[in-house]
Amino acid sequence: MSAVLPYSIAAAALVALGLFGLVVQAAVLRKILAFNLLGGGVFLLFGVVARRGAGAGATADPVPQAIVITGLVVAFAATALAVVLALRMHQITGAATIAEAAEDGFPDK
Amino acid sequence: MIGALQGLGLLAAAAGAGFFLAGTVGLIRFPDTTSRLHALTKADNLGLGLVVLGLLPFAGSLGAALKLLLVWGLVLLAGGTVAQMIAARVRGTEPGA
Amino acid sequence: MGGLVDWLLAALVLGAAAWTLAAPTGFAAVVGFVGFGLLVTLAWVRLGAVDVALTEAAIGAGATGVILLMAVVRLRGGAEEVSAATPGRAVMVAAGLLAGGVGLALALAVLALPDPAPGLAAAAMARRGELGLGNPVAAVLMGYRGLDTLLESVVLVFAVLAVWSMAPDRRWGGIPGPRFPRQEAGPLALLARLLLPIGLVIGIHVAWVGAEAPGGKFQGGTILAAMWVLAWVAGLVQPPAIASQAVRLALVAGPLAFLLAGFAGMALGEGFLAWPPGLAKPMILLVEAAMTLSVAAALALLVAGPPERAA
After folding, report:
1. Per residue in C35-87, pLDDT tens?
2. Which of A45, A103, B14, B92 would you label with C292, given CA atoms 20 to 30 Å apart?
3. Nearest-CA neighbor of B94 among B31, B3, B18?
4. What transmembrane ranges does the database entry give (chain A) (predicted)?
5. What gap in Å lies between CA C86 and CA A30, rounded to an integer?
6. Of C119, C70, C21, which Cα lies nearest the Cα of A41?
7. Cβ density class B63-75: b for 16+ within 10 Å, e for less
8. pTM of this prediction?
9. pLDDT at C227 over 90
């Protein structure tokens, strides 16, 4: 079952990339994207576990697969909510980041 | 006989992959939007068409073969539409394009 | 040979993810994310999880891509603010070390997983027949992890409610999203007319075959939602007012049917969400049909966003 090795490493690296982007990037939209990359890495870890558990005629363990399908739908719902929150914030304050806002809604100049 | 058909299929799929490669190089290297679109449509239409053609001998059943053709048809439809819309948008903004 | 394909694909996934983070504009980043989603879809196929691949393509790349693209055009500007808020080199290095450490720990943990791997594949394959489902993933979603699936369907309803509640008070009950001009001619009008009937059939087909083959309510429902979004963008339909009873019914039909089936399990079977033997297949079909409708409605409403216009 050597086929999972590339994806194990990719999944761990994706979590790292997503976490880095989430911390470092300032724009809210970029943070949402980074969070989705992080989530993609976590899902891929489930994929690796599912593939390792293949057997009895199943190409991958169905239980982690079902959990990832649930996770993907919930991640979409969370992303949709995050995007709408970002848009509303932008609409009200004009801000594109969640940096410590000054009185006028913009970060310290 | 089956072997010959599948050999032809592999050749067609390889040619299709070649179109994808050329189309991708064009998409990255061409200077303006319309020529990039030109490169992209080659990969979409011809490249995928050849790959689908090459996969037909391996499809195993008539239903699977028809599904492959349907995928190609849908990509043609969607790709053609998007290319038209991007080109129309570019013509409005980039003079001489 | 197979190994090379997997290494290449894993490298491409990481490359697309890195591009998504490093892209010069928000638009380029979102396009990079959609490409990332499609590459991950291929990875799921390579991992033998075709059900997940379909979900990733439809929801992870497709639906998420659409809402992000719609957001990116509205979030233009703010470049100065963003560069002012971007952390300095020291924070970058610290974050890089932290993230790298987390990634390394995860990689080590995955590589140290027990071999042979424990799993429930054999149990899921052996018992899927009790529900009349050939697809083990569908059997797990409806049977073994039925409670998860029920709660997930409720999450979708809550997400729609949360999105709606972002509207200003005076817009409550109004019509969500921008209004697109009706396309009488041109490529988009043609696509909407040609693709819509085909897409509806494919969406229902994908939901229907989910019982036996890869597919299911989430994948099929997403295709149906996409068809509605296409008709909306082409100006053929207008989003319904969120006060509409029909919309609210479509939204909750799935969770409601699921919940009723759960209580029926208490009356006829062994407990909440236990499918009564003999009745399992028809009940699951009813719940799945209602869920397909609700998933389609919820996803379309999440794409349309909060109400912006008076009904």
Report:
1. 999 999 999 999 988 999 999 999 989 899 999 998 888 887 677 777 777 78
2. A45
3. B31
4. 6-28, 35-54, 66-87
5. 12
6. C21
7. eebeebeeebeee
8. 0.89
9. yes
Across the interface, of C187, C195, C198, the residue whose CB is closest to B84 is C187
Q: Please indicate whether, in this complex, the C-beta atoms of A47 and C44 are within 8 angstroms of each other.
A: yes
Report the alpha-carbon distance of residue C215 to residue C209 in Å, rounded: 6
* Minimal Cβ distance to A47: which of C52, C68, C144: C52
Q: Is the bond into C276 cis (omega within 30 degrees of 0)?
A: no
Nearest by Cα to C142 from C183, C134, C298: C134
Name chain C contacts of A90, Cβ cutoff 8 Å: 74-75, 78
**Token match 């409806």: residue?**
C142
Ordered by start, the domain boundaries in chain A are 4-93
What count of residues does chain C have? Answer: 311
Tell which of B37, B77, B89, B90 to mutate to test the C interface (max C CBs under 10 Å): B77
Domain coordinates in residue numbering, chain C? 1-75, 120-309
Q: Tell me how far apart the alpha carbons of residues B33 and C165 are, in angstroms, rounded to a whole number.
A: 40
Selected for mutation to probe chain A from C1, C27, C52 (highest A CB count within 10 Å) is C52
The 3-class secondary structure across B77-89, one letter per residue, is HHHHHHHHHHHHH
Nearest-angstrom CA–CA distance, C253 and C268: 22
* CB within 8 Å: A65 and C51: yes
State the smallest CA–CA distance between residue C63 and chain A in angstroms: 8
- In CATH terms, the fold of domain A4-93 is Helix Hairpins (1.10.287)
Rg (CA), chain B: 16
Per-residue pLDDT tens digits for B36-64: 888 888 888 888 999 999 988 888 888 88
Looking at this predicted complex, what is its ipTM? 0.90
Query: Reduced to 3 DSSP states, what percent helix, strand and coil does chain B have, rounded to the nearest 5?
Result: 90, 0, 10
CB contact under 8 A, A96 and C306: no
Interchain contact, A53 vs C117, CB within 8 Å: yes
Q: Of C158, C139, C180, which Cα lies nearest the Cα of C294?
A: C158
Those of residues 64-93 in B touching chain C at CB distance below 8 A are 74, 77-78, 80-81, 84-85, 88
Total residue length of chain B: 97
Q: C40 Cβ partners below 8 Å, 6+ apart?
A: A40, A43, A44, C13, C56, C60, C61
Is the Cβ–Cβ distance between B49 and B12 less than 8 Å? Answer: no
Where residue B91 falls among pLDDT bands split at 50, 70, 90? confident
Cβ contact A–B (≥3 pairs, < 8 Å): no
Residue C194 near chain B (CB below 8 Å): yes
Q: Is the CB of C187 less than 8 angstroms away from the CB of B80? A: yes
Q: CB of C176 within 8 A of CB of C301? A: yes
Q: What angle do CA A17, C18, B26 make, to 5 degrees?
A: 165
